Amino acid sequence: YGCMTCIGSSGALQPAMETLVNEGLQAVCVLSGNRNFPRRVNPSLGHGYLTSPALVIAWALAGHIAHDMIHDALGYDAQQQPIRMRDLMPTREEVEEWVERAMKREFYVNRREIIWQGTPHWQQIAASGSMHYPWEASSTYLRRPGYLQRLPRDPAASLSLHDARPFLWFGDDVTTDHISPAGAIPPTSLAGKWLLEHHEDPQDLNLYSTRRSNHEVMVRGAFTNKALANRLLPPEKRGGGGFAWDADHQQILPAYEASQSWLARGVPLVVFAGERYGAGSSRDWAAKAQALMGVKAVVAESFERIHRTNLIGMGILPLHFCAGEAARLPEMDGSETLDFIGLENLQPGSTTLQLRISRDSRLLGEFALTAVIDSQQELAYLLHGGILPFVIQQTLKG
Questions:
Q1: What is the pTM of this model?
Q2: Which tens digit of pLDDT belongs to each residue from 355-366?
Q3: Is there a contact between 30 and 56 (Cβ–Cβ < 8 Å)?
Q4: 3-state secondary structure at position 264
């Protein structure tokens, strides 16, 4: 109900089914909501099929996605006669009759009169009023945002990006779910371990979506989707989630842990991707997590519109490959140095610039990119390092 399936909170699979999935069974979900991204409803469900609510029930009765709803029986009655989908579907008149019997105008009128009272649980919450929220260092739900620390007082005079490193390199259709999960927090994950270290009960780890005001949890969950494969790693090490090289290029670590080694050295990071980077839900944390990891630019063949805007809102440059340039990229291994030539001249509109890729001081190639900035305001956000720094800096000046 409600956000449950959408946010991946429909519950765990039956243990026997989970065992089969671990042994290689391709399990799927059938749902009537529109969140049919791979592994969204449950990490063990690799595919999702959209149908009507009635067909969701019918396929649950059938038990497998290959069932022929037109010709095959869903079950048998007491006389062993086949019952098919058409036998169970109500007529429009039957639906309207039940709507008339079950839905009453007074239900909504009565609810509207008491809606602001809240539930008894809500009424029992005690809180002191204040003009500013008193941040609690021990809270595992509300923490002072990490992306508001160490803000410069003034914006940059111009944009530049030199001596950056490739951090992650993905293919097409990396969704915001892949970048920042919303479902249950596994106890064995980095986010789950952080919560357990901060004295949370293993039964109360909750969802990433309910911990979205805790950047420590959210950034640890970024790029942990098992479907991700980082092309910067050796082929045998690419699968199973977003892993990356550390700053010494000695260890392959989960993306969060690897990013911390780069952040400690002040090295800017770049993500490479194919078509439709950031498709799916318009999840702000998909951009926030990358900013907290030290990502300064994403270079892709194309972006989903809202995610591109969210990247700019976090001070991250969304850059497009010019036609044919992505196919010319060398086989990078994460040790390369990246220099972006022409960012200093960035203006609203379309700006062409060059990406120089080097390894061991040897130039591997130059590649044409396009920066598309829709407005002077977007440029101002980038110069300030994002929307929130822009607002804070404007407030300080006022």
A1: 0.82
A2: 999 999 999 999
A3: yes
A4: helix
